[in-house]
Amino acid sequence: MLVKNVYELIGHTPLLKLPVPTPNNSQIYAKLEMFNPGGSIKDRLGMSLIENGIKQGQINMGTTIIEPTAGNTGIGVALAAQKYKLPVILVVPEKFSFEKQTLMAALGAKVINTPSIDGIKGAIAKAKQLAAEMTNAFVPLQFENQSNPDVYERTLAPEILADLDNLQLDALVAGAGSGGTFAGTAKGLKAVYPDLLTTVVEPEGSILNGGTPHAHLTEGIGVEFIPPFFKTVKPDRVKTISDEAAFKQVHALAKYYGLFVGSSSGAALAASLELAQELPDGSNIVTIFPDSSERYLSENIYQK
Ligand code: PMP
Predict the structure, then answer these.
(1) Domain Tryptophan synthase beta chain-like PALP: where (predicted)?
(2) 244: domain CATH number?
(3) Closest Cα to atom 8, ligand 1: which residue?
């Protein structure tokens, strides 16, 4: 395969028929988003946020892009901004992984940390404040920007449908941070499978199932507020997964199946296995594995 530049490699990731056994002969398929050039599902979003901003006139040649992020969206935004030679500032709560922050800087972005205790809300406020102090800055704001669900509806859902080649699909299981992946993919798949059971995954410490907010080790998913994208696409189920259950699957996927995935993928698999037990025998479940464990090695992901 000959490619002209790295940015062309975004998307068209493999869908793995997971050899993991389920209690009732259900089959789990996992979209391996670590194969994007920036290493995660959020490369798709980064490119879309920048290109839509340019199209809509919010970004011109001298615009500084400022985005609050847990990391992967930052890498995606930095990659896309590099293509268009735009300066980038990423506002990241300091707890997020060293590797992700290093990769953002390697791509040319300036990384500004906010206190972990202030959560993603603190990073959002800081990004808005920085933009207000500058003359030509734009905050794409993944948490509210319609490009977020739209890009997954436009790219991820059709890829899954093409890969499954008319196979009956019974359920979607996807984690939520901003909620964009879930909302867009659910909308795209439901248009073809109206009875699809859509399930969102969160860690303990996230609020979707009514739990009290607290810190968790599972990285990239978990919400402090109901994602605005859920107003139009309501999840049929919410699965709340403990850190322990998520990391157990991360370890098993490496040890038995040769797959290096991050903790949000582990949570997605744990939720898919729980859901399989509630579905008729032989159901087909598709889930998303957003990134690789390699960007969490400094957090001792295999020792947790
Ligand atoms: N997993 C990981 C590792 C992520 O970085 C993200 C994005 N924060 C997600 C899952 C969740 O994606 P979304 O923001 O689309 O809900």
Answers:
(1) 8-291
(2) 3.40.50.1100
(3) 220
